[in-house]
Every structure is written in structure tokens, then in C-alpha cells.
Amino acid sequence: MPTLPYAILEAPSTLGLATEGVEHLPDRLMDLGLAERIHAHRAERLAVPPKDPMPDPETGILNARAIAAWSPKLADAVEAVLDSGRFPVVLGGDCTILMGSMLAFRRRGRYGLFFIDGNADFFQPEAEPHGEGASMDLALVTGRGPSLLTDIEGRGPSVRPEDAVAFAYRDHKDQEEYGSQPLPKELKAIDLPAVRAMGIEAAAREAVDHLTREELDGFFIHLDADCLDDVIMPAVDFRVPDGLSWDELETALRVALASGKAVGIEITIYNPRLDEDGSAGRGLADVLAAALGAAAQ
């Protein structure tokens, strides 16, 4: 289990989306007492550059140059937390914050990625209808896509495909409809049907076993709120039926954190503007407090 105290970094970027709203994720979770509930230090809130509504002409990706310039700043902030002896809890923001988070660990060694997301996020620019980097983040951090975003600081890929696990994704129909590139065979895939067949604890343990191999220095957790069942987490911009329950997500996080090899976590995509009765945010805060709180004991 993590023996380091937590530090919260607020990274309210929407550079990877055409829409707005997820920038309010940190405020909502902080208002729900997340910092106090996990006894976390509030480290920093990063400023985010303005957005351009038109995709970058060279890459076809919205705000590609802004993302490339901003990601090292987030990486610097993550490294500052690590250097202070704390465990970073990064509150997005959309999924492109992953590029900054993983860059921090790429600078320090060879780290894995536990990618808990309702979508595989492996689109290439020519197949993403809106040019949204938030649909490409797993592809980009594993080296698929334009070098502007796959080789930041000349360190690409930020994570080797064989060191990543795509967990609980369920967007198979959308991948097929829009022509997403397939996940590479070397990237371990445990989609939602596989999670259901194995059971959540066994599935999470298989993922974590892959990420605790001797050659890895640790692993980072990416948590997209859209991994949750659409019934309990409707406050996301791109909704897909089904998903994990609160208990299933808590179990997956507990297994990951209990390994002693998790080095940080980020939370993305929850949009408070779409949370009409506030229940989705409360549930998310409760799960994070339960899993992170238990790991700190």
C-alpha cells in the first residue's frame, strides 16, 4: 500500500475536448471534501492555455501545439510532488492530461500504466471526427500518432505498449463505426466483457500482476469517470451504456493500490455541469476517499 502522503494537483485542462465542463472537476471534488478525506496536501493548480476551436492543420488534433507545450509543465508539477515525498493525485481535466502525467514518470525510468477507461482511446487523428485528443490519449502515450505529441522532449513513447493495460473499456461499436486503429497485440487488453467473465477482483489482479513485473519501476493509474455505468455516472460528455459499478471500481483501485507499486493516480472526464442531482460527483468522491483512504492506513 502507498506509504507516502497524498498531494493533490489540479490540472483542469479541456484542451483535448471540443466541449467545456470537465475543468470544474477539481472544484467539485474539493468541495466534496476529497482533500480532507484522504488527508492530502493541496500542491498546485495549473493554469491552462486558451483553446483554439479549429484542429491543428498539421496533425488534425485540437490544440495539439498547446497540449505539447503544456504537458511538460504538468510533468514538472508531478515531479515536484514526487520530489517532496508525496503520492500525486492529479485532478483533470480531460484525458490528454495523461501525456503530462506519464511524461513525469518517463523522465524517471520505466513505468507502467493501468488505464481504467470506458473507451480504449486509441483513435488516430484521421478517424476522430472532432479531432479530440481525449479520444487518442492511450495511442499517443504509447507512441501512435504525430511525433509532436508522441515524442515530447524526445522521450517517446512515454509508456511502452507492453507496459500498459487497457481495463474495462466497452466502446467496441464506436471503434468499429469510426474506424479506430486496433489496440496493439502487445498492449494487455481486459475489456468490460472480460472483466465480467473473470470477476472484478480476478481481472484487477491480472492487470496488476502485469504491471508489477520486475522490469518496471512502478505504474501510474489513469481513471476516467466514464468507466462507470452510465446509470450512475451520466455526467460525462460521451455516454456509452453499461460500465463498472461503484463497488467494482473501488475493488479495482484497492487491488492496484495494495500492490505497493502504484506511483500516482489521475481522475478525468467527470463533468459537474452534467451532474443534475450531484449524485455522480458524490459517488466518485466516495469511491476515491474509500480506496485512497484505505491504502493510506
TrEMBL record:
* A Pfam entry, by short name: Arginase
* InterPro entries referenced in this protein's UniProt entry, alphabetically: Ureohydrolase, Ureohydrolase_dom_sf
EC number(s) of the enzyme?
3.5.3.1
Return the GO cellular component terms, semicolon-separated.
Answer: cytoplasm
Q: Which residues form the signal peptide?
A: none
- List the SUPFAM superfamilies hit by this protein, alphabetically: Arginase/deacetylase (SSF52768)
Q: Which superkingdom does the taxonomy of this entry point to?
A: Bacteria
* Presence of keyword Transit peptide: no
* Record bears the keyword Manganese: yes
Kindly list the GO molecular function terms attached to this UniProt entry: arginase activity; manganese ion binding
Mind listing the UniProt keywords for this protein, alphabetically? Hydrolase, Manganese, Metal-binding
Give the UniProt family note: Belongs to the arginase family.
Q: What is this protein called?
A: Arginase
Organism of this sequence: Rhizobium laguerreae
